[in-house]
Amino acid sequence: MTAIGASQAVVDVHYSIRGPLANRALELEQEGHEIIKLNIGNPGLFGFTAPAAVHDIIKQHLGESEAYCHQKGITEARAAIAAYQNKYSCTEIDEDDIFIGNGVSELILMALRALLNVGDEVLVPSPGYPLWTAAVYLSDGEAIHYPCRAENDYIPDPKEIESLITERTRAIVLINPNNPSGAVYPDDTLAEIAKIAEKHQLVAMSDEIYDQIVYDDAKHCALSGYITDTLCMTFSGLSKVHRACGYRVGWLCFSGKREQAQDYIDAIELLASLRLCSNVPGQWAVPTALEDNSIQELINPGGRLYESRRALLEAIEASPYLYGAAPNGALYAFIGVDTDLLPDFDDEQFGLDLLEKKHVLVAPGQGFNIAEKNFFRVTLLPNADDIREVFIRIDALLQEYAAAAQSA
Q: Architecture of domain 68-291 in CATH?
């Protein structure tokens, strides 16, 4: 039989969060080992649940959920999203500016597929959630990564972003609060990036799925509140703030200068029509979820996420090998390993060794589109005691590396 090869479209597509390490972790579990998984931000696997009122409203509307709905989503859900976005960012949009998808992931893919021609460029953060880079390549574009450096607390430099713009640049992507670093961008940084997008007439795409998950004095500001003279697209959903990943309800809000973008918006609606509609039962949860504020109980002092973050920061501070900026938002920390102490450190080998020897699963930093090999990402979702145990095991492995290097 002739070998069946993969499309060239997926050559540059990577998603190591669910890659070989995760597959090996499953094998180890099947062999009877207990694996502590910190590779993925999936609240339901760590005992987090959506608010009870969200469960109840879905049950009430199951009988109305058996037919396809409009390709953009049910009106009640879109109206609630528009009202939330207007209040949160002082925009002026209505339900016609909203698309609901099967999670934000589907909407990212549609948004880039409808925008890009072969060779068009999109500015994407590094480190950044790998789906954005993958979606650019799947849409025949080129991902141009702008750096968000650890020494600057993972906040991008707007001047550096602007220096990467060419005649082929079509869009700029922000992830705020950021995945994987947990950085929350200051309002002056957002204002400068908004001016750059307007100056060069770039489509501004802002992934704000973690908008209400911020810690201490951090404040999240929506990019849409700074943009009037170009098209702005805000992505969010129920997965993280409302702990309902499996419902697969995400949304895309258009704001800013929409009139000149009507052909593009129509193209997204065409793609939405081709997949008929998004998951209907989950959409009924949107109005109720957006009125819920229970995330505050988790992110304030004493709350589970806050205390897990505290345990992580204490562990990094106590380790002679680790460093990293405190995550001010989202559900992750992006941690560096001191290469002065461990010059041969390789994140992928570390991820494999940590899994095989210590039964802990993390995501190597290279999977988030950085060139450096001395970073890894963990999620804050385990409880504080599990976080402490994880870093005891991490430090033990790093000590083994240091001893082996000294004896070599």
A: 3-Layer(aba) Sandwich (3.40)
Residue ranges, comma separated, of all CATH 3.90.1150.10 domains in the chain are 8-49+296-407
Provide the residue count of the chain: 408
Rounded Cα distance between 230 and 258, Å, is: 8
Residue 195 scores a pLDDT above 80: yes
The DSSP secondary structure of 213-239, one letter per residue, reads -B-TT-----GGGG-SSSEEEEEEESS
Element (H, E) at 169: strand 169-175
Other CB atoms within a 10 A radius of the CB of residue 300 amount to: 12
For residue 179, give every residue at least 6 positions away whose Cβ sits within 8 Å of its Cβ, in sequence order, or none. Answer: 41, 128, 129, 207, 209, 210, 330, 331, 332
**Arithmetic mean of pLDDT, 147-170:** 97
pTM: 0.94
Helix axes 20-30, 347-358, angle to 10 degrees: 10
Mean pLDDT score, 349-369:
96
Q: Alpha-carbon distance 290 to 173, whole Å?
A: 24
